[in-house]
Fold Lipooligosaccharide transport system ATP-binding protein.
Amino acid sequence: MRARGLVKRFGDFTAVDGIDVEVRPGEAFGFLGPNGAGKSSTMRMIACVSPRSGGELRVLGDDPDVHGPRVRARLGVVPQQDNLDSELTVRENLFVYGRYFGLSKRHVREKAEELLEFAQLTDRADHQVEPLSGGMKRRLTIARSLVNDPELLLLDEPTTGLDPQARHLLWDRLFRLKQQGVTLIVTTHYMDEAEQLCDRLVVMDGGKIAAEGSPAELIAKYSTREVLELRFSPGQQHAALPGVQGLADRIEELPDRLLLYTADGEAALAAAHQRGVTPVASLVRRSSLEDVFLRLTGRTLVD
């Protein structure tokens, strides 16, 4: 997938503002950003369901606005909300969807059994969809998106609302697909998910790309090796701020704590104690993609 100067407008509002992106075959690529950043609008253009307003876009070598049906036949799409047919069984959801692609009944039956095993749903094959857990429904949605053996799989917030066990199982399924050569494009709000799944990613904000690279590259560029968190009683952190000045490359004040971005968190903690700073609790941790995300997009809540 390759985009150059890609634009999407809705009337006077520009949702995607001239972005350049290239996704290499066989990699897992992520779009991160707060609500309204332009991630979903970009995904809809890639999925050939929303025409672009400007720029160039090629998906699997074709122009989606010209060869939409041909591109869609080679895509798998996992929407943010499961849209399974609750009137059908698990197996029937796979079978009916496969027939939309013009695949033979025999092929779809065989493919459905393969996907049931892949999604660990074989023992639920003849059950109705509605009573399934959220994790099972999500696995079925992903299995259904694979019925046409897509070369490119688009996943919009694939694990939202799932418990940790279900999320890790889905990560395993997606990692296996990547090993099989399927290209993955993912949007997610979970920074740990992006670090687990994505070879490269872009951080979007206000319709533009704020940063691009591998998770490790982004952390190295926009954060420090470690972060020292000093937690205080609410409102007391501001009084402690002068005592930690100069102990870190960057200091961030939150309502109940101070974040000190530094190469050596333990040394910064010892120095803070020597200066008489006494937090309620302290934590030294490695910098994460979430630190990068919040630095680039801010901590203001976006609805």
Q: What stands out?
A: The chain has eleven helices and 13 strands.
